[in-house]
Amino acid sequence: MQPEHIRASDADRDQVAERLREALAEGRLTPVEHEERLDTLYRAKTIGELAPIVSDLPSTGAPGPVPGYGGTDRPDGMEILGSDARDLAGQSKGSENLVAVFGGAERRGRWLVEPRTNVSVLCGGVELDLREAVLSRHEVTIQLAVIMGGVDITVPHGVRVINNTSAILGGADLHGTDQVTDPNAPVVHLTGSCMLGGVDVKAKKSKKKRKDRREK
Questions:
Q1: Could you tell me the pTM of the whole model?
Q2: Cβ distance 123 to 100 under 8 Å?
Q3: What is the pLDDT of residue 214?
């Protein structure tokens, strides 16, 4: 069954309603347009009927995956639809703190990326692999404080990475993440600072897809 024919859940409708609320607050929709779209939203029965309601709105920080997302730059590892992904996203606590002092820390495999992940590094290293991760929101932020250390971040193809970090004798290198043009692509914001250290971001295919190709 194609994703657009899947029956919409209450969680799917809540995600679209949140995007409409934010669009109203930003002045993108008038109160009348907001009410009209809400009426359409709660009459919708499938994922395919939800997508057009927000198709002319830019990506926002609305919680959870965007229903009906089907851009050409769709990530090849992150799950956009699926009850297990929604269940994991529902466990969000808002933030996570990762600290590496004269040591290391990592997140890989199936894990939840909180709306804000605070990464503190002092003479150590942190590895974040998002290829099989679930984003708690369509846009998430990784706040960095790196001193004499490094952070390696791997994302699946189709994810936008926006770098707003500041550097003192250090910096951030982004590889393969600047060609994502889909306005509905998931977004990872990098903020914070690096001193005598660096951040390395790479876009790679998911491990699962590489394994499937080898088995064929």
A1: 0.60
A2: no
A3: 53
